[in-house]
Amino acid sequence: MMDEGTELSLTIAQIVQRLKATNLHSQIERQAKECLHRPEIQLESLKEDVRNFLKASGWERKLQNAVYRELHVQPLPRHPAAPPEHAKEPLAYMRKAQVNWEKRILKSLNSMCTELGVPLARKRPAVEQKELTNKWNEMGTDEPDLSRFRPVYAPKDFLEVLISLRNPNHDSSEEASAKSHWGLIQVPLHDRDIPQMREAYSELSLTTGQLGIDDHTHVPPDLFESEHILIGKKVVNEQDSAAAQQYSRQGCPTGLRADLWALVLNSTNEPEDVMHYEQLKAGVIHHDLLVDNLIYKDVKLTASNDDYYFVFEDFLYQVLLCFSRDTAVLEHFSYNSATPPKSYIQGKVGVEEFAVVYPPNGVIPFHGFSMYVAPLCFLYNEPSKLYSVFREMYVRYFFRLHSVSSSTSGIVSLCLQFERLLQTHLPQLFYHLREIGAQPLRIAFKWMVRAFSGYLSTDQLLLLWDRILGYDSLEIVAVLAAAVFAFRAENLMEVTSLTSAEAVLADLSTLKVMPLIQIFLFATVI
Amino acid sequence: MSKNKTAGYKGPHGYQKRKEGDGRSCVRYKCGLTNTIQDVLRQRPGWMEVKDDGEWDFNWCDVGWLRENFDHSYMEEHVRICHFRNHYELTRKNLMVKNLKRYRKTLEREAGRIEAAKCDFFPRTFELPSEYHLFVEEFKRSPGSTWIMKPVARSQGKGIFLFQKLKDIMDWKKDGSRSEEQRDETQVESYVAQRYIENPYLISGRKFDLRVYVLVTSYIPLKAWLYRDGFARFSSTRFSLTSIDDQYVHLTNVAVQKTAPDYDPEKGCKWQMQQLRRYLTARHGTETIEALFKDVDNIFVRSLQSVQKVIINDKHCFELYGYDILLDQDLKPWLIEVNASPSLTASSQEDYEMKCCLLEDTLHIVDMEGRLTGREKRVGGYDLMWNDGPVYREDVNLETLGSACFTANTHLGCVNDRKKQLRQLLKPFPGKKRI
């Protein structure tokens, strides 16, 4: 085993390596060179003076933010002798399940491709390219015939895969008892109980001010809100990622949220980001991908039918079509249990140099995928900025919601966490629902896969996502799912079928998430 | 059942008379419409519909009925009707502009240019054919501009079109050379030509306008309430000046949008005001948007002040106006028009509930049941915006008089926790047991 010191040095070395390749590095280098002309830089104290200059001019802060960002996307630390797959997913049976799932998706995609006679990728003729360029800002007006395309999979298909997960080393032959798990997920992963979460989420406690609770109309703003907003403005002025993350735990004020999230995600809109986006756009213009149709279909079926997100239809195409072509996204597969689908040039199967990732970003969209982007349209309306924020959200959090892994933020853990919380604190309800054939996870799964997007009202959703960013974890999504069941427990005890249970929980648009979470975590008798 | 008998309020005799006359504490209402208002009236405890020529205490009529019957109706003191006799001074496009222009001139004379500039919330407008020559002067001053023609008396987007060339409006040319007979024969409908706002604020490429509800219970003195809810109506296609013939792009009335080929009623093309306010705040920051809504308040107050002396004030009358406001890219609000009969037909379940609450609260303020003291600053979703002077959130008394900071008592697009507020405010309906 590595000791802490070695681990740290390794991490530092990795981060330095990654940052050396970035534009920030060359910018800082240039700044350092140029500042030599300044009068306050003395030869005797060169190193000190340059450092001080970089600090005063804000470059040190930018570097700090970049390092902080890298820490978020570090693969899990692993023993040097462990194979690289372990960084993606340490548990062998999870890896296997993910591989099998991917095979199924790919098969489905390939068969659709053959059935419809549509190529996976095709270069657009010049006329079509011109047309698309003209229509770039209003792709939603297009009405292509999408009836033949089916989503590659829906969340409920994925749920079946998770339900069938088994750890071969775990003896699950014991008789069902009070100690056994009543839910659908039957893998023994570690998760936190309420006392542990009370410590971890201390900023959400009953005695701490929150946006989503203490900014309510009849709470005088002097008690919390005004002060919180002032602090928020300071954080934005300081341009400090770490501070922004800590701050978000108590919620982001509407007027500051866009800036704060960009800070937490270290999402910049520098010329090189804009250029990168323009290149992706050019990629969309030149080539048509099969997955584009899946994206169109998804947007038309979900976001366009939403009462509030319908307005942003065009933005969704502009983001998702570019996302499919962004090979920078491939980096996240080093810590994602998933592996991007590869196809090989004819006759060279298995030879890596002749492998092509499809789609270029390795992510095959599924039904509801566009809902990851829709809420962000509320905050950003410059396509390159919106794109930059979404991509970072995806490679930090959203990817975990549709891949099989043992990560604490992964969907498997969230499902297990949800079921365990319910079984521990609402056993009567859980038992009742089980008896009537309404396993709670069957209802809550679709909420969690989308991190509640499209189920909560937008302002509530953004308050939830504030905390996802603030705590750098999706765990709160599972807590909210359990809290919703707790809130509707009385009505749920009366139902006698899965359908009626679904009906009780069909409309979450009036829920206030923070009181629900707060009460569940801090007022539940344990 | 004691209540404050403030001036202008139903006197004790009026109330008792009603009770004696019916032998029951009930309100007899007449309703000329068959949409949401019918449901709201029917569900109100103690209210009974009268048919045909029966005597009524309350009348929710349409403007046609008003025109034919108002002058011949004798109304007892307690009786209420939902329109002012000559509301069209505010709601007909040509008259509204005439009154605003006159008011602006008066302001400039009496209070100077800066004060008068606060009335610059309507685009340059001319009535045709009467102001044709003035219009042509303005038209020539801004070459390449786009103008919109609207019939003065029609609604729901009918008859509206855009133009950029004078030849498109030859029919409205006021030409002294035409003979008397010619002019009589070809009588054209009165239109207004208005400078088209070419840089509307767009959300994701789409144009929208705002529908806001203002309730006026008296013009002299002016007493006006602003409803917190409202909505933004989106055009279902993307905005572009190149297609001025495409009325689906430019007109945002739901009535017009419903006929557009890609209209999907399930989709809906409205956002609640709260949603819009949150979106704008997220994009531009709290202070900027608070300033915007302050400018919007200014539109309501000034437009009402401009017709204050013209409207025949009548204590029997109240009126619920639907204001249409357009934002431009500089976040300046523009007044498009004022509707005396805003549509009460619901386009969705959410819309239905909003309109029910709006109408219920309207009836609470009209207060046939005598439950209010007359000193309230808020009733349900309505905030008192103007009461013979600006109304502030803070209580103005000797102590606070010195402080410079007063905020207007308006909450457009803010949280509407009306049920809670009503529970605290209202006594139960007469006839019901007190809790």
From TrEMBL, chain A:
Kindly give the Pfam families that the UniProt entry links to this protein. RabGAP-TBC
Q: Which residues form a coiled coil?
A: none
Q: Which domain of life is it from?
A: Eukaryota
InterPro entries reported for this sequence: Rab-GAP-TBC_dom, Rab-GAP_TBC_sf, TBC1D19
Instruction: Please give the SMART domains that the UniProt record associates with this protein.
Output: TBC
Describe the location of the Rab-GAP TBC domain by residue ranges. Answer: 251-472
Q: What is this protein called?
A: TBC1 domain family, member 19
Q: What is the source species? A: Hucho hucho
UniProtKB/TrEMBL annotation, chain B:
What Gene3D superfamilies is this protein classified in?
ATP-grasp fold, B domain (3.30.470.20)
Q: Does the keyword Ligase apply?
A: yes
**Could you state a single Gene Ontology molecular function term?**
tubulin binding
Q: Which GO terms describe its biological process?
A: microtubule cytoskeleton organization
Alphabetical GO CC annotations of the entry are:
ciliary basal body
* Highest taxon, organism lineage: Eukaryota
Keyword terms: ATP-binding, Ligase, Nucleotide-binding
Q: Does the keyword Ligase apply?
A: yes
According to the record, the residues making up region (Disordered) are 1-21
Q: Which PANTHER family match?
A: TUBULIN POLYGLUTAMYLASE (PTHR12241), TUBULIN POLYGLUTAMYLASE TTLL9-RELATED (PTHR12241:SF39)
What family is it from?
Answer: Belongs to the tubulin--tyrosine ligase family.
The protein depicted here goes by the name Tubulin--tyrosine ligase-like protein 9
